Amino acid sequence: MQLSKPVPIVRCGPAGAVAENDEVALEEPLEIRLDGHPIAVVMRTPGHDEELAAGFLFTEGIVASLGQVRKIEARPEENRVLAFLADGVESDPSRHTRRFFASSSCGICGKATLDAIFTHFPRIEREIHLAEDALLGAPARLRAAQRTFETTGGLHAAGMFSAAGELLISREDIGRHNAVDKAIGHALLHGIDPAETFLLLSGRVSFEILQKALAARIPLIAAISAPSSLAVDFARESGQTLIGFLRPPTFNRYS
Q1: Residues marked as catalytic
Q2: What's the domain range around 213?
Q3: Nearest partner of 27 among 6, 3, 8, 48, judged by Cα
Q4: CATH code where residue 76 lies
Q5: Strand locations in 99-219 (E)
Q6: Which residue has better confidence, 36 or 119?
Q7: pTM, 2 dp
Q8: Which of 72, 82, 134, 171 has its CA 20 to 30 A from that of 186?
């Protein structure tokens, strides 16, 4: 699976300028259609498009479970994914349609109303019990799985871990919210219960990531970098544990 491509550059430094090739992360649009209706166009790194669509439909509250989806068909040559609802499941596509392109840095861009941002999912009342070593060992395990980042430096990563600290799923993407949707989509498609995992992000964590994690019932979200103020507020209201600046041997617990 190609996640990057070579481009000619001129590398400049004290020793002068040298012409060579560099690897850059791929970024291409993906149109998600539900029963033939365009739902969104997201900017993503190609690959795992079925997982991205599955995660997107679920974490955006468009479907309550993947049992409501009969089929997801990726058409990579068209940069399109077709999803079809199961018989008897009804949805109003116009309620979910985003009004313009969502950039790779945007998790909530294009939603038609402010109310649509705050999709409603129940507060998490249970806890995940894990040893501190499982949390502290997670960044190194996720970093080792970031193969395209190693060559491009240009992709975000999301990893889902067991309570014992085992890396169950890792996904890279130009957009951090896409990486989360791909990871959650993989879990849902392969029978992994997100409620028994914790989520680690390679960068910062913002509100829409917490919302997606809440939809999947993930009780603990950790990030290598900082959380936003709204992410902190959301985590405290939703009953999620939020860890920031996870840089062993230290981390900050915000909720």
Answers
A1: 106
A2: 132-253
A3: 3
A4: 3.10.20.10
A5: 156-162, 167-173, 197-201
A6: 36
A7: 0.88
A8: 134
